[in-house]
Amino acid sequence: MILSNQTYMQLAFVACLILALLTLPLREIITIGFFDISDLFVSLMIAVFIGYMINESMPGNAFISIGLFILIFVTVVTGIVLLNIFVIIPFRSRSENSSATSIRQLEGKEGTVSVSITADGVGEVLVYTGFTKTNRMAKIYENSSEPVTFIEQGTNVLVMDVKDSFLYVLPYTNTIQATNEQQPTWNLNKKNRKRK
After folding, report:
1. Looking at beta carbons, which pairs linking 23-27 to residues 24 or more positions away fall under 8 Å?
2. Residue 23 contacts by C-beta under 8 Å, 6 or more apart in sequence?
């Protein structure tokens, strides 16, 4: 019997490992809710490993019973299902959502051109989102009242639209930044009076 022979247990472990690796591409096809074909072979592999360790630790010719092996297998399957439900699937959905929706959320954000954009070409824009920055491919937004044919590197831009993973941008001057760059005029009147 496989459960009583250490060599068979080792071969079963290696076979489950190979089958788990071979079935990785089939994970999305052969699945039952939170448990797929690859998880089945990983569960078998872990159960065989635990059974092998129990056989190794027992003195004499004692071997793991089928009932104990089934209990170990069910426990491992339950652990993998819970791991999928509470850790892997939420983490995967968060990462997919963040990459898919983050580009849509860039609409209306300000950025800086890192690679110049021509009228019929593609450039690159560095957009700051919170504490992070992201580089995205960009084109010139064509639905503006004043046609723009070239946006130089280092120009501040505003993301007008997002289509097909491209940001459509126009040159933009932030009024707060423009106010900070202007010289105050209230002081000039006092200086002119003193000179007279």
Report:
1. none
2. 30, 37, 38, 41
